[in-house]
Hints:
The complex is a heterodimer.
Chain A: H1 2-20, E1 27-30, E2 34-38, H2 42-50, H3 54-63, E3 65-67, H4 74-78, E4 90-99, E5 104-112, H5 120-131, E6 136-138, E7 148-157
Antiparallel strand pairs in A: 1-2, 2-5, 3-6, 4-5, 4-7
Chain B: E1 5-6, H1 58-65, H2 71-79, H3 81-93, H4 98-112, E2 116-118, E3 123-125, E4 128-130, H5 136-150, H6 153-161, E5 164-169, E6 175-178, E7 183-186, H7 194-210, H8 213-217, H9 225-242, E8 248-249, H10 255-267, H11 277-294, H12 312-323
Parallel strand pairs in B: 4-5, 5-7
Antiparallel strand pairs in B: 1-2, 2-3, 6-7
Helix pairs in contact in B: 5-6, 5-7, 6-7, 6-12, 7-9, 10-11
Amino acid sequence: MKLKNILFTLFFLSIIQFTMAQVTPIETVTDAKQTTYSTKSYNNYDTTFKNQSYDLIRKLQENLRLVDNVDLTFIKSCVLNDTSLQNTNSIFYVEYIVNQNGNVLGCRLINYGNKVSLSNNEVECILTAAMNNTFSFNNIPNDVNDFYSRIMKRYVFK
Amino acid sequence: MLNCVEVSCSDSGGGGSDNDDGGPYTTDNGGNEGIEGGGGGGPGSTTTSPTTGTLPSPTWIANELNINLTAAQIDYLIDYPNIFDEVRNFLDRNRHSQEAEDFVRAAIDALINNGEVDFDTQTIIRTNFNTDSLTESQKRLFIIAKNELLNNCLGAALLEAVDRANVTMGATSLGEYNPNTNTISFRSNNDINSTTLGAELMHAYQQQLYGTLSDIFNGTNNVGGSNMEFEEKAFNIKKDMLDIDTGMFTYPGEQGLTNWLIDLDINHPTGPIILSQSELDGWFEALEEFQQFHEGNPDHYGDPINYNQNPDAILNLINNVLESDCN
């Protein structure tokens, strides 16, 4: 019985680890203006988003309204022990690709200005939390069933 | 953040009851003398009238405030006791300085002309939207949309810049602006929202500033049509960026514009912004991305670019925000 419990716990932990590991590996791109950390799936979903028909994109642009209850304070929690970030006024953007249900399919963190550097653990913590966010929409056009949209949110670290 | 004191705010469904149809001073049958805020539509503080059972006289108003006002201004205060209270409190707070008295006179004039006033930040927004052709429910939606814009610093700057427009229904797309008649129109009630209103007001401001929209939209010379639509997108993206807690959609063809606005935000924390040549080049690069994405489509998004048309309208608005204490 005890062994069974241990095996179940190990199995359960491995599932959690697998789920958590979805955001890694992280792809990092740095240029003079910014550093971007993307989940592995981000670029594929971004391409899918951009490849939607012109008519659909225009229809979404004209009608779709975002209901946003996402709070980015998890960024602060993820870098809580990082004193190098204190009082830097660093601006972070999180960009999400979401489906018609508001579920996040991929996301990326953009560190504008490269004022600070983030550790791998910090980035992973942020992207993992961001992947668990959900959005909802108002005014979805009647004749549209499936679509992707891209949402950007700003967070100023003070 | 502006918190407007607006004559028509009271019928916006935002918590106040209708009180713009007449004098909301209430006269108590029991002989209580008083000027009271109208039915929840105003601040509702109470002052004492010198006359029993009758409306306060112009002389009483003038004496109570101890300021020179025109007959029209006094009549307005008689009709709107909540504004009277605001004025009296404002004058008391500012010890009846000359500046405060001047502000009060200008504020009442603006309110008479359907403008908005924030006594806390000493802001007057003179707007005059002719909404006569809208139904009451459409007027309410319009006021809600306008107030949403007012609660955004860039939106407030735009409302301050555009002081006059007609508002109608009957658009074939969700919102349209006719530069010949200075008319904003909406397609349906559902389209009367701050995003559509902001977009069409931006075109009204462009017409005010550049004066070229008649030619572009009438099809006599559509060079620069993409500039106008692109700059309108810049307004709504920047407006959303200022709402720090709210996410915004980013669409294909506008990625470069979003990045350009973010760079501007980071590189110019204070104003006024004067664009460098590289920033101007960046604007036109982003505009090319936008124009190419929309090229060949029947609206003005894909019109040829006018490389001599700088983004003065959006820059003016951003500078107005940076130079104000709005945040």
